[in-house]
Design a protein that fits this description.
Elements (H helix, E strand, L loop, with lengths): L3 E5 L6 H14 L4 E4 L16 H11 L4 E7 L6 H15 L3 E5 L18 H18 L4 E5 L4 E6 L12 E4 L3 H10 L2 E4 L11 H21 L8 E5 L13 H12 L5 E5 L11 H15 L1
Helix pairs in contact: 1-2, 2-3, 3-4, 4-5, 5-6, 7-8
């Protein structure tokens, strides 16, 4: 099974002071895709520079030619399907059809209250996620959409001429619970996971592999229930959140070992963080670039 290697570039650098160079270098290194986080601020980067995802991707689209681009991930926390659809159609056009939308249910972090609201309960997040994905799917495939939902509505929302990619740009649905996996099975062209967060602090890499094996099996069951072949979905692992942490980026051999174990589970794309000094994503840039250029070849 072939394996794709991608990167995620956090939007922490000014465009003319390292931002553009990173995206262009990602293309030069041969990454399949480069993604960015779609947050208003995030964790330890809360008090430092943090730029908007979709403007960053628009700039990256004009600075690159072949690299796929996308979000990991967009959520309903501060977005509405109607306005998001218009921006995505524009971004897909500017990029020449190179956009993938990573999409998830959101969480209880800074984004959850940035608009002045109380954080949603897990039940409400799941309900909103279901409506959000279903309405966005319609908005990106139909010229005009009217819908009255519990959380999201549209009134003759027009999206002509639609996406460059047909029938729409691909969704990479981040999910581990039953409702999210059902959405991935129905609407996703890819499925995204970061592993089991309960194992991050005290778990072992072996426990993480078994947890991911279980997630893949649950995805297969959700696809079967939806009458879909799970092999149709790309399976994406966003690294950095398993007990391995940054160890796979310590050497090419370490990464090849890590990637090989996860490829055996059925993963078709592994995403590694672009190094950021003095952060949780610190790594040797030279080793990182060597992994980008040599690891996939070693994996065969």
């Amino acid at each position: 099974m072939s394996l794709r290697l991608s990167t995620v570039i956090l939007p922490v650098d000014r465009w003319h002071q390292g931002g553009r160079a990173a995206w262009q270098r990602a293309e030069e290194l041969g990454f399949h895709a480069a993604y960015t986080y779609d947050h208003l601020s995030w964790r330890s980067f809360r008090d430092g520079p943090w730029f908007g995802a979709l403007p960053t991707l628009t700039a990256a689209a004009t600075a690159t030619d072949r690299l796929r681009l996308g979000t990991l991930v967009t959520s309903p926390n501060f977005r509405h399907p109607v306005t998001l659809a218009k921006e995505l159609i524009t971004l897909d056009d500017i990029s020449g059809g190179r956009i993938t939308l990573g999409i998830g249910a959101g969480g209880s972090g800074f984004d959850a209250t940035a608009l002045g609201q109380e954080p949603w309960t897990p039940k409400e997040r799941a309900g909103r996620f279901g409506e959000f994905v279903a309405l966005l799917d319609r908005l990106l495939t139909e010229d005009a959409v009217s819908e009255q939902g519990t959380f999201y509505s549209a009134g003759e929302a027009r999206n002509i001429p639609g996406c460059v990619q047909h029938p729409r740009l691909p969704f990479a649905v981040a999910a581990t619970g039953p409702r999210g996996l059902k959405l991935a099975a129905r609407y996703g062209q890819a499925w995204v996971t970061t592993g089991d967060p309960k194992l991050y602090e005290d778990g072992t890499p072996e426990q993480s592999v078994e947890a991911l094996r279980g997630q893949v099996e649950k995805l297969g069951a959700a696809c079967e229930a939806s009458g879909r072949d799970a092999a149709e979905l790309e399976k994406v692992l966003l690294t950095g959140f398993t007990p391995d942490r940054s160890r796979p980026l310590e050497s090419v051999d370490a990464f090849v070992d890590f990637a090989g174990r996860h490829r055996e589970l059925g993963f078709t794309e592994i995403v590694i963080h672009w190094p950021i000094p003095d952060s949780d994503f610190a790594a040797d840039q030279a080793v990182f670039e060597k992994i980008a250029t040599e690891a996939v070849t070693q994996l065969g």
